[in-house]
Amino acid sequence: MISNTPKPAWSAAANTAVPQTVPDYPRQYRRRMWSFVAVSLLLIGVVLFSAMTGSLKVGAVQLIQGLWSGTDAQVNVVRDLRLPRIIVALMAGAALAVAGVLLQAVMKNPLADSGVIGISSGAALISLIAVTVFPALYFWMPAFSFLGGALAWAMVYGFSWKSGLNPVRLILIGVAVNAIFSGLGQSFNYRGSYAVTSINQVTTSTLSMKKWVDVEVILWYGGIGLLLALLVGTWCNYLSLQEKTARNLGLHVTRARLIISVIAVILASSATAIAGVIVFIGLLIPHIARQLVGSDHRWLIPFCALSGGLLLLVADTLGRTLLAPQEIPASIIMAIIGGPFLIFLIRRSDRIHGH
Amino acid sequence: MDIREITFSYDRKIDRLHQVSAEIQPGRITTIIGPNGCGKSTLLNVMSNNAVPRQGQIILDGKEIRQYRPRELARKLAVVHQQNEAPADLTVEQLVRFGRLPYKTMLSSRREEDDQAVEWALQCTNLEERRYRTLDQLSGGEQQRVWIAMALAQRTPVLFLDEPTTYLDMYYQLEIMELIERLNREHELTIVMVLHDINQAIRYSDHLIAMKEGRIVMSGEPEQIVTAELIRSVYDVHVAVRQDEEAGLYVIPVSVRQQTLIEA
């Protein structure tokens, strides 16, 4: 995916020598189109592969026939156990990646990620408390999750705002907020684990044991979040200008920021409620996506959704097939691939978008 | 446009503007001058609704600017800020098109009108041949023209510019000033700008507003108000004021204190 990224055509030294006519514009378009095609094809391929592989193996033809007729016992097992897991992985990955790109637009900071700045752990803590106190409200878990995420977001935003957003301060405060919430979550988990054994999926962040009820939850909350995210692309573009400039162009800056943040928190917290805390997707995917499709959010947001889903599904599929029958949680796979990959990407590209 | 008794403070302790009142005449070029920290950029920020005054009002077309909806105001008033940032991969045309935001609604887009406005803005700023370039492929002067073009695409009767020539070399400075003059003369834009260069201010303005320590010291036509005394009281600099056949009235800085001159 990365190897096709062309070298930046505009290193500072090359500027003056660029010829008058413009080769860059169509090329930008072509690369964007191919990126979409490639990710879509990969997505279909990985979904099929993931459905077919595992402790129970089915062929592609058998799978499609079985899903159609509903009489194939093996395929029915796949449908009940593996398919929900695939859909949850896709939706959670998409939601986290889009939440990342939205937060980065609002906070004007390429390091903003719901996992890094504590939104996910805030969401996880509150939904963990809620599901322990009111176990019957399972369908509403994303709503509790949202409250936690919104609380964490408000803390980060509020504490780091000082007549403007300083990127470094924001990340530092985010790390601190994240530490507070994950610490509380862990102590709660630790205290509770004698009484409520192992139902706290919010902290273990594995995608196994997903049922259709989970799919329903994440399709609703995540789906609405993703649809809303597609509508605010233009706003995100304007926020990449200076705040004053955006305001004088007629953008209601504060309102736009607030709405985009709410959408980001909905996405991050519904993903967290169902799939647990997964870091790096919201950092990694927008970073790659900007290099492939450019910084126009009207393209960036859908592309992040597709590639975020793809990445989490790949991570989950690897996690359950590499050491089968043992499983490695997708969040751990993400951290293992994600960390080095991010360093590699940052080292490799000398152009930084957004600023 | 009317500026009525504006008092402004960033921290509610020290007032940066004290009861500033002035009138901006339509169809003319007004320039605000003054030393660093005199409040000239602050005044421009208040006038463009980027800062909320503690007291006083800015009246535009009979209405207080805080009463306007953002889009509505952006159809009357465009601002070119001193510092700008944009994603590196945006092309000139895409960026200029950003200026059409005040005319966009959820459902309809007036494509033809948008295209015309963008073309006009590119034409005025002589950027037609650069339209597919990205920002960082442009020189400093061209970049500044792009930001002016974006403001022009808003098709407003009033244009504000905050130190439009800072950071540019002499050629580009003159180019920008001539562009601004042309916009005023040919397209009848009302221009309000903040300038550091007193000679540019004299040369290109119909009306000067001289500020010091948050107050207006003097205002009027450059030929009438610019004297060695004014410059000394505003900038604390001793200058010689001269008249040149080609360049008109101009100012030569001599020393920071008059005493040095006398002693020498």
List keywords for this structure.
heterodimer; A: 355 residues; mainly alpha; ABC transporter involved in vitamin B12 uptake, BtuC; 71% helix; globular; disordered N terminus; disordered C terminus; B: 264 residues; alpha/beta; Rossmann fold; 4-stranded antiparallel β-sheet
Structure description:
- The complex is a heterodimer of chains A (355) and B (264).
- Chain A has one domain (26-348): Orthogonal Bundle (ABC transporter involved in vitamin B12 uptake, BtuC).
- In chain A, 71% of the residues lie in helices and 0% in strands.
- Chain A is built from 14 helices and no strands.
- Chain A has helices at 24-52, 60-69, 73-107, 119-133, 141-160, 167-192, 201-204, 212-231, 233-239, 243-248, 253-275, 281-293, 297-321, 330-348.
- In chain A, helix 3 (73-107) crosses helix 13, helix 8 runs antiparallel to helix 11 and helix 9 (233-239) crosses helix 13.
- Chain B folds into two domains: 1-76 and 156-235, Rossmann fold; 87-155, no CATH class.
- In chain B, the strands form three sheets. A six-stranded mixed beta sheet of chain B has the order 6-7-8-3-9-10, with helices on both faces.
- In chain B, strand 7 (158-162), helix 6 and strand 8 form a beta-alpha-beta unit.
- Chain B starts with a strand and ends with a helix.
- The relative contact order of chain B is 0.16.
- At the A-B interface, helix 1, helix 9 and helix 10 of A face helix 2 and strand 6 of B.
